Amino acid sequence: MKILIVITKADIGGAQVFVLNLASKLKQRGFDVDVAAGTGDFLFAELEKKGVNYYYLDELKRNFSILDSLYFIKKLYQILKHSQYDLIHLNSSNTLISAISVWFLKIKPKFLFTFHGLSFLDKNYSAIPGLKGLVKLYFKIFATNVDECVFVSAVNKEESIKSKITEKGVVIYNGLDLKEEDFLTKKEARKFISERCNYDLNNNFVIGSTGRLAYQKNYEFLITNFDSIKSKYPGIKLVIIGDGPDLAKLKSLVKNHKCEEDIFFAGAIKESHKYIKAFDIFTLPSRYEGLSISLIEAIFAGIPILASDVGGNVEVVGENSNQLYQLDDISDYLQKLEYIKNNYDSIKISNNKRKELFLLDGMVDSYIKVYKDLVESKK
Length: 379
Prior knowledge:
Strand order of the largest sheet: 3-2-1-4-5-6-7
Number of domains: 2
Largest sheet: 7 strands, parallel
Radius of gyration: 21 Å
CATH architecture of the largest domain: 3-Layer(aba) Sandwich
CATH topology of the largest domain: Rossmann fold
Number of helices: 15
Distance between the termini: 13 Å
CATH superfamily of the largest domain: Glycogen Phosphorylase B
Structural class: alpha/beta
Order of helices and strands: EHEHEHEHEHEHEHEHHEHEEHEHEHHH
């Protein structure tokens, strides 16, 4: 079976890690797999290490443009015309429009689209007035051109059907292939992060996060409420690993709240999961999520989690785990933080049992089954 996996950007991110892991495993299992992506370095460099062929599509950009979309459709059509793929696996909103390229092909591949989230449906999604409606219409129109839709969480599938974007779909959780040796020990990780932050964190209780410094991740909530957190837990520190467009704004917010000795930005770190045992609790205050790769990494690292109750977060930690708080509710955040501190070991044991849900081989098995069902259905 010949498969082309397409994603908008090649920069480091959860969806890019998903594509890398899936393509690498498919190649290991004997599938003929290629990847096509737009700007960025991370994905291409990692694919090259794994021996996976890739196409760089300069026409594929994050910001939607009719002209760029037409160029992208033309480029993809040329690729499909010269390489007869059995299946095209699309992974980001800007790629969905490319499914119409099949109209011009004599030999038509099957198209699969993975919804890595439904941020545009979330009430907390920031958008220009009227834009959310247009984005929703875009998905309604172009999702009809694909043969199957996959959702990374049951919550997303339910939202899609309720909003009449899709009529059905398959839920496949993101999977990881992480073992104990893939993480530094707490002592090693704490030493490394202390050096990155230029502050000795060895005697502190550290809450931490990895993520893109952008509106979605809502790190403002932690910064603006850190006085309340610190007043209850003196000596507590916050470390954020990552980079993004909001870095300068967040640093300014830290300065305005006089938290420079309490909140640290460790910057973008390659394979950041290796270092998350530096954290006593992994926290994620996101406004919206699909199924967070970083939360799954925390599950594998054996770190208790304190995350906002949005998107698929409940599917990572489980219901009634007391590791979720109501979005932007500092009182609930503090209550759950206290619960986690008081039940630390039992939560670690409970989280450890959830690893089975997010194994990479299980995810790949599920995708292969969907691929085979689709390809065989056209015979």
